[in-house]
Amino acid sequence: MKNLVIITAPSGSGKTTLCKEILKKEDKVQFSVSHTSRKMRQNEKNGIDYYFVTNEEFIEGIDKNEFIEWNYHFDCYYGTSKSQIQKSIDKKNLILLELDVKGALSIQKLYPDQTVSIFVEPPSINDLQIRLEKRGSDSEKIIAKRLQRIEFELSHKSNFDFTVVNDKLEVATNQILEIIRNETKGVSYVT
Ligand code: ADP
After folding, report:
1. Is the CB of 166 under 6 A from ligand 1?
2. CB–CB of 87/130 below 8 Å?
3. Any bridge partners for residue 81, and if so which?
4. In 3D, which of 161, 131, 147 has the Cα closest to residue 17?
5. How many independent structural domains does the chain possess?
6. Could you list the pLDDT tens digit for every one of the 191 residues in the chain?
7. What domain range includes position 164?
8. Do 119 and 8 form a contact (C-beta atoms < 8 A)?
9. Whose CA is nearest to atom 10 of ligand 1?
10. Nearest-atom index, ligand 1, CA of 146
11. N or C: which terminus of the chain carries fewer CB neighbours within 10 A?
């Protein structure tokens, strides 16, 4: 049964924005909250957007084997906790996971029969750069690093089940909702 929906994308393509829209429009979906050691942005809340921890706490989690997948990039750690995913799988809930490309590939490999993966593409690299600059949360150095990863991330597009271009937000949101509804029929929803 497919009950893990992965949204993945190059940084800045709009996966966070799209996940928020999906959660607004489909309250049956439960968001899987990842852990990170990056600084909390102004509009973010601990436990809602991420579990924000220190680098030391994250490393302790790695040592204790608490993460199903984790990455270190842009000077911070990001990961998905094992216990959280397992709880959702056990309950057969419909889970939305927002993951970078590496994380998405790992989860897909671990749960091939349970995942539906959607790769979100920016309309163009130029749009992506503009969005990252407009978001205003990263220094020029970090934006340059994010852009350097794009080629790697785009090269994995074909590993995912669906591709959605995030040009007009509402169109992309509706496309993703349709995929989720079609692909997860029969999954028991969180009430
Ligand atoms: P990601 O989570 O993939 O890094 P974000 O969701 O943070 O990307 O989006 C990056 C920036 O682009 C944000 O400032 C967001 O408001 C903006 N954005 C997202 N989707 C669109 C869209 N369809 N059109 C224009 N701007 C968008």
Report:
1. yes
2. no
3. 67
4. 131
5. 1
6. 799 999 999 988 999 999 999 999 998 898 999 999 999 999 999 999 999 999 999 999 999 999 999 999 888 999 999 888 888 777 778 899 999 999 999 999 999 999 999 999 999 999 999 999 999 988 999 899 888 889 889 999 999 999 999 999 999 999 999 999 999 987 766 54
7. 4-183
8. yes
9. 12
10. 4
11. C
Would residue 189 count as lying in a domain? no
Please count the other Cβ atoms lying within 10 Å of the Cβ belonging to residue 133.
12
Q: Give the CATH number of the domain where residue 128 resides.
A: 3.40.50.300
Residue 76 CA to residue 104 CA, distance in Å, equals 18
Q: Give the residue, by CA position, lying nearest to ligand 1 atom 14.
A: 135
190, part of any domain: no
Q: Is 71 in the pocket of ligand 1 (CB under 6 A)?
A: no
Q: Is the CB of 134 under 6 A from ligand 1?
A: yes
State phi, psi for 80 to the nearest 5 degrees. Answer: -115, 125
The CA distance from 29 to 23, in Å, is 6
Q: Both tokens of residue 120? A: 């979100």
- Does the model's pTM come out above 0.85? yes
Kindly give the pairing relationship between strand 4-8 and strand 95-99: parallel
Q: Which atom of ligand 1 is nearest to the CA of 13?
A: 3
